TrEMBL record:
SUPFAM superfamilies according to UniProt: Epsilon subunit of F1F0-ATP synthase N-terminal domain (SSF51344)
InterPro entries hit by this protein: ATP_synth_F1_dsu/esu, ATP_synth_F1_dsu/esu_N, ATPsynth_dsu/esu_N
Compartments where located: Cell membrane
Family of this protein: Belongs to the ATPase epsilon chain family.
Protein's job: Produces ATP from ADP in the presence of a proton gradient across the membrane.
Keywords for this protein: ATP synthesis, Cell membrane, CF(1), Hydrogen ion transport, Ion transport, Membrane, Transport
One cellular-component annotation, GO: proton-transporting ATP synthase complex
Protein name, entry field: ATP synthase epsilon chain
Subunit details: F-type ATPases have 2 components, CF(1) - the catalytic core - and CF(0) - the membrane proton channel. CF(1) has five subunits: alpha(3), beta(3), gamma(1), delta(1), epsilon(1). CF(0) has three main subunits: a, b and c.
Amino acid sequence: MAELTAQLVSVDRLLWKGQAKIVTAQTTEGEIGILPGHEPLLGQLKDNGVVTIQPVDDERIVAAVQGGFLSVQGDKVTILADYAIFAGEVDSAAAESGLHDEDELTKARSEAELAAVRRASNINR
């Protein structure tokens, strides 16, 4: 059986390295699957994307990634993420709290943009 040598690396740590059957990743061009014998490739990882690795002798690995690149050279796949975390390490409560904070930030930006437009229209009168 053909195999890939794969590694998942973030700025602060090596998350996983080993032999895999398949690697999938969400890129800015769409989701891609890498099997042994894949053509050389350099892809940009999608923000808030997911990478999965199916090791040869173990359970599937799922990681959330934030930016970075995927490189394929021969039968070697390297995923270099700005930030990556295993799915099992995600703190659901903190993630949901972050969503609420993001909603508030978006609302504040919209209000600031609206106020700027109003000021600009008053200046032009």
